[in-house]
């Protein structure tokens, strides 16, 4: 690209929430300059304009709203490393002629594995025993052994998946591999063929037919949510009442889809046996009642935070950017 001074203008990419080394190398090979300086939210617009940034890449931390879009007419692409786009004003950006890209397939397996990390934590009390063993393991070993003696197997149980898109399907594959029954509810996907592939090249395919949320809530032993940000709760006080007694709930999707006040109440009453949360209503400052609860397994929004997923995200973003701007 030639600027007004007839000098070559190297396209600049600001990866404000980071990008993998493989993504940087792919972009640099494509002729782009990659900047990984972490710019504070309130300084993003100024930084973009002062440094002639052409592309801004974000994950979940940085927000690209109307104010930044209006203030930065030089922006050509807004990229989101991952699935959810709720931190970007997508339609408004597109109305201004800006490309908006993401990587919906890159992190599915990583998120699904974290779901099962929380499920295994919950059914065997690992999150709580890992808190208490360092404190009491040498003085109350037999007491702790008794406290954590009533574990549950996942095999043979029913996993209800709310949202059977890419991540929901990856979660379904792992559940099927464990010998679980899988049911799903999805307003947009009436049925899906899920292919479980094995290390030796063999595979099996099974059809999952979407059912109503209410029937899923009544039938599932464990529930995992894989939906975008919502206007209201998917599981609120009314929904908790119809869940099976002793259900386990995992949310590695978006904060705000579960009513956390109602969740704590359900955990305290025993209606819900445990919860696994990677996302929260109030990020980055989750409520203390959530953080301190002995029946909640906690992670700080790390669903896609594996080396493998970040490599895929970085190279996929790079490929899309090079295609759009070359």
TrEMBL record:
Output this protein's name.
D-3-phosphoglycerate dehydrogenase
What family does this chain come from, according to its entry?
Belongs to the D-isomer specific 2-hydroxyacid dehydrogenase family.
Q: Does the keyword Transcription regulation apply?
A: no
Any Pfam family matching the protein: 2-Hacid_dh
What keywords tag this UniProt record?
A: NAD, Oxidoreductase
Q: Per the UniProt record, which residue ranges are transmembrane?
A: none
Q: Name the source organism.
A: Flavobacterium phragmitis
The highest taxon in the source lineage is: Bacteria
Give residue ranges for domain D-isomer specific 2-hydroxyacid dehydrogenase NAD-binding: 117-303
Q: Where is the D-isomer specific 2-hydroxyacid dehydrogenase catalytic domain?
A: 19-325
